[in-house]
Amino acid sequence: MAELHIIGQLLGAKGFDGGMYCRWGIDMGDAWRILEGYADGRTQIDHPGDGDMSYWEHPFDIHLATSSIAGWPRIHVQVWREDFFGRKELAGYGFGFIPTTVGEHKLEISCWKPTDASQNDALKASLLGGGPVLLNENVIHQQEDRFRLYTETAGTVVVEAGVILKDFEQHGVEVNRYLDP
Fold it and tell me: Is-above-0.90 flag for pTM?
């Protein structure tokens, strides 16, 4: 079986307000299986200054095996905000594909969040906190039902990932080992 090893960190987030933390996960197709590591996790909360980036520097290390490149792994994120009273509310969802080339990569995952369809609901959320969240989190990285959502852009999550590929050539997949400068 071909193997993919991803070693990296969720560096942080920018463009969000307040104390932030991130729930993350690696999703992959049915032909993939985890050899070692965890496919999901959660960072600590960072309370940056106004306009500053939240820094988590949360490490991840996952080793995968596959019999097919279908369903190439992707990382999905959920950024949550903690307010002054300790209440937590969704700040944004996002996802990005794990790079298919060997080496060090910096991913900037653009985030979005569901918004209220009516002005009354939006006013209620702004006064009481909260807001809509997804009941089915697969919508984050699958396109079938996402077009029905009312959304607004949120901030960006920065991920640093090192990618190591093993035995892909033996299974008929040509791998570009060198990145152009």
Answer: no
